[in-house]
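We emphasize that the prediction below concerns an isolated chain of 205 residues; any contacts that depend on oligomerization or on bound cofactors are therefore not represented. The input was used exactly as deposited, without trimming of termini.
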Amino acid sequence: MNLKFFGEVYVTLLVIVDPPGMVPVFLALTGTMPPKARIKAGTQAVLLALGVIVGFAVAGQTLLDYLHVKLPALQGAGGLLLVLVALQLLTGKTDGPEEQGGTSNVALVPIGTPLLAGPGAIVATMLFVRRADGFTDYVLVGVAILLVMFTVWLVLRFSGVIVALLRPAGIEVLTRIAGLLLAAIAVQLIADAVAAFVELYTASS
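Result of the prediction step, given as a token string:
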């Protein structure tokens, strides 16, 4: 069993997903929800992210090739989606849970994807699958993904403690800060996508 490879997959994905960094955005989007609804949103987001990452690990490259989509395009699309969410957080024009029809919208987009299952996590997973040598390595990649998602779930599950400490006024401030951070992440994703496209087409010409 290649424990070094397993550790590399786990640490890399954990750093990319960044559970502590997810907490401000998660609380900004779910801070006004009842505790049970917030826990449900976190669980749905993690399950969706797990499904997306595993799906791309198994058939991601085949799907992108079939659709004639390059990885930078996926990255840029994720960045544009995050820009829209960041603007909502910064302006305070986010829909409440009732207007969204429950927790599912917030859990699926943007928490589940592209925040948890974003371009970075997807690309890293696809690269690790390419490096895998035999069935055992594939199993190690799968177990590492499960452990990362379980870690994320634990962090989101107990984020309610932070909500109780911050109170509504603190949540309002945190929402604005999260919007600014999310906007920065979005701009970085788009910039990286543009740079990758330039490098891609420069190398092919």
